[in-house]
Design brief:
CATH superfamily of the domain at 36-120: Chorismate mutase
Number of helices: 3
Largest sheet: none
CATH class of the domain at 36-120: Mainly Alpha
Distance between the termini: 28 Å
Shape: elongated
Helix content: 55-70%
Strand content: under 5%
CATH topology of the domain at 36-120: Chorismate Mutase Domain, subunit A
Oligomer: single chain
Number of strands: 0
Length: 133
C-alpha cells in the first residue's frame, strides 16, 4: 500500500502492506529493491483504489444532482467548478504531480458528472454516448 503524508512535497514511494495477514519485516522497503512483479502488483492496487474513488465521487455527485433538482438549482455551477479545479491544482503541487495533468483528469470527472446529472434531471432523454467504454 502507498502511504503519503498529507504535506508531502515529493512523490510518494511504494510501500508494501504491513497487515497481520502479510507480515513484512521491512516497514519501509526500498522501491529499487522491489521486483517488477511486486511493483506491478502495487500499481494494480493503486488502479483499483482510483476506480473506487471515482465511483465514490460519482455517487456523491449523483446525490448532489438530486439535491439540486429538489431545490430547483441549475446543474452547472461555474464557481464550484473553478474551486474544484483550484483544489486539484493545489493538491497536484502538494504531491509534486503535474498540475495540468491533474486538472485535465478533474475536467473529465466534472464533465462525466455533468452528463450523469443531466441524465438524472432529464430522465426521459436518451443517455448520451460520452465515448467512454
Amino acid at each position: 500500500m502507498v502511504t503519503c503524508p498529507s504535506r508531502l512535497t515529493s512523490r510518494c514511494e511504494p510501500m508494501r502492506s504491513n497487515s497481520d495477514s502479510d507480515p513484512d519485516p521491512d516497514p519501509d522497503p526500498d522501491p529499487d529493491k522491489m521486483s517488477l512483479d511486486e511493483l506491478r502488483t502495487e500499481i494494480q492496487g493503486i488502479d483499483r483504489e482510483i476506480v473506487e474513488l471515482i465511483a465514490r465521487r460519482t455517487y456523491v455527485a449523483d446525490t448532489i444532482a438530486r439535491v439540486k433538482q429538489d431545490r430547483g438549482l441549475p446543474t452547472t455551477d461555474e464557481e464550484q467548478e473553478q474551486q474544484v479545479m483550484a483544489r486539484a491544482g493545489d493538491n497536484a503541487r502538494q504531491f509534486d504531480v503535474d498540475a495540468n495533468l491533474v486538472k485535465a483528469i478533474f475536467r473529465l470527472l466534472i464533465e462525466l458528472n455533468k452528463i450523469e446529472q443531466n441524465q438524472f434531471t432529464q430522465p426521459d432523454s436518451e443517455p448520451e454516448d460520452a465515448g467512454y467504454e
